[in-house]
Amino acid sequence: MNTHTMKLKLMATLALMLATFSMAAQDTLETHIAPDHSLSLELFGAHNTVGINYDRRFKGHDGLGFRVGLGYGYSESSYFMFLSHSIHGIAVPLEINYLLGKGKHHLELGLGSSLGYYHETYYLDAIYVPYGMSQYNYTLTRNTFGYFMYGNIGYRLQTKRGFQLRVGLTPSINFSDKYCLQRQWYYPYISFGWRLK
């Protein structure tokens, strides 16, 4: 399966999952079960560095839900002795997730996409030595839209008093087009939050 076909299938799956939001929201209104919703602060994961999330179940305390966030990410890497790269920006992670389990302990599974606006900088320090010492410094910067797809596998503690703790891994799904951000194959995360009334 080529990259373009795989990307289209993932985007179609996300669109279908988001379309279920209106159906599940209507079902929630009809059955009069107040869905859980919460705010949380997350470190790493889908935010890369730090971000805030709004999370809501479609019905009740577990099952299908969604998460929307706003975060800041920063990354720096070196490729060879003389080439380095840095990127930072603001992104909006969108995720459909499912909570398995009853009571306060849950397994959290999700699939999402993070869309953002980033500033990239490439640095090249080259030394030219054939007839003497010369040094060249090149810097290339650009502002660009970027995205990445991700999964979510984690543990969620939701106490009766409202405290929420989430820990887990965010596996990356990388594509090879010019807007897809290339990330490590997974990022750990930890999140602290509070259930809203």
What distinguishing features does this structure have?
single chain, 197 residues, mainly beta, Porin, 8-stranded antiparallel β-barrel, 1 helix, 8 strands, elongated
Describe the structure.
By secondary structure, the chain is mostly beta strands. It has one helix and eight strands; from the N terminus they run αββββββββ. It has one helix at 3-31; strands at 37-44, 50-57, 63-78, 83-100, 105-128, 134-158, 163-173, 186-196. It has an eight-stranded antiparallel barrel. The protein is elongated, with a radius of gyration of 21 Å. The N and C termini lie far apart (46 Å).
SS summary, helix count: 1
Largest sheet: 8 strands, antiparallel, barrel
What is the average of the pLDDT values? 83
Q: Can you tell me the number of structural domains?
A: 1
In the CATH hierarchy, what is the architecture at level 2?
Answer: Beta Barrel
The tally of beta strands, per DSSP, is: 8
The first-level CATH class is given as: Mainly Beta
Shape: elongated
**Subunit organisation of the chains:** single chain
In short:
The protein has one helix at residues 3-31; strands at 37-44, 50-57, 63-78, 83-100, 105-128, 134-158, 163-173, 186-196. It is built from one helix and eight strands.
Summarize the topology.
Layout: H1 3-31, E1 37-44, E2 50-57, E3 63-78, E4 83-100, E5 105-128, E6 134-158, E7 163-173, E8 186-196
Antiparallel strand pairs: 1-2, 1-8, 2-3, 3-4, 4-5, 5-6, 6-7, 7-8
